[in-house]
Description:
CATH superfamily of the largest domain: P-loop containing nucleotide triphosphate hydrolases
Order of helices and strands: EEEHEEHEHHHEHEHEEHEEEHEH
CATH class of the largest domain: Alpha Beta
Structural class: alpha/beta
InterPro entries: AAA+_ATPase, ABC_transporter-like_ATP-bd, ABC_transporter-like_CS, ABC_transporter_ATP-binding, P-loop_NTPase
Keywords: ATP-binding, Nucleotide-binding, Transport
Helix content: 25-40%
Number of helices: 10
Radius of gyration: 24 Å
Largest sheet: 6 strands, mixed
Domain ABC transporter: 5-234
Mean pLDDT: 89
Organism: Sulfitobacter guttiformis
Distance between the termini: 40 Å
CATH architecture of the largest domain: 3-Layer(aba) Sandwich
Bound molecules: adenosine-5'-triphosphate
GO molecular function: ATP binding; ATP hydrolysis activity
Low-confidence stretches: none
Amino acid sequence: MPFIVDVTALRKSYAGGFEALKGVDLQIEEGEILALLGPNGAGKTTLISTICGITTATSGTVKVGGHDTVTDFRAARAMIGLVPQEINLEPFERVQNTVKFSRGLFGKPANPALIEKILRQLSLWDKRDSQIRELSGGMKRRVLIAKALSHEPRVLFLDEPTAGVDVELRRDMWEIVADLKRDGVTIILTTHYIEEAEAIADRVGVIAQGEILLIEDKEKLMARMGKKELEVQLSEPLREIPSSLVSDVLRLKKDGSALIYSYDTRGERTGITKLLADVAAAGLILRDVETRQSSLEDIFVGLVHEGDAP
Ligand SMILES: Nc1ncnc2c1ncn2[C@@H]1O[C@H](COP(=O)(O)OP(=O)(O)OP(=O)(O)O)[C@@H](O)[C@H]1O
């Protein structure tokens, strides 16, 4: 099946010569949720804006639903819904009218039943006659999503949908995204919140300094790069690791209360039995042991940090 979004060798230099995208390739399958993670200034918004045809690429091609976003702009744009980072709504307009108007801009005939469905899905139906200025920040974000969905796009871009919203609303947003996926909408979102990618994405892309450093199925990524740690809590804190135990995979917790042992979950042997025997032989008394899996956050920080290296 052809990709619903197909980006090839995309470059963008802004006036002044700053290269915000340095040859990005990105293929997205219909119906998936892709989370793009990256530090400030990585190029996430530039990438989304270029795919949506709001920013002009310096070179490279973008196809959405098989339509080139330059030579076949209208057909490509009709397939795309974009929820921008900034709230750019008309304060005196009413919710329902704003959403209807957005649909009209795409030359689509009025469809009150669809607008009602969208407003209900986003819990905005009760607010349909409110003026935008009367809404809370979270409600305004929902209106942005409703506008973006009004022309029935197949691909929805959400640029930091939950930046600055409270925990409850963030969870509501995640449910909204899951609902849209069930309706078959492909979703690409940018985020600074790793737990957001962990919670909702099928695939995760990491972008830094205008390049995609990695793009992979979330579960596989976590299994492949995941390391485990064993924390051996001691009954008496230590000042330093006893010489018989010194190794590159063992470190002392800052307060000296525990030894932290890293091991690879894929290895045939974890080395834990030997470690515990060595700990006992060194005369240390254990209080407790705990294991933990490294998170997407550890993976992300490691990658972006590597990207900074000269
Ligand atoms: N119109 C512009 N003119 C010149 N430089 C720009 C312009 N827009 C963005 N940039 C630069 O391009 C780089 C990428 O910006 P972009 O907004 O795409 O990053 P981002 O990953 O979305 O960041 P954030 O997470 O902070 O939103 C930044 O260094 C930014 O300063």
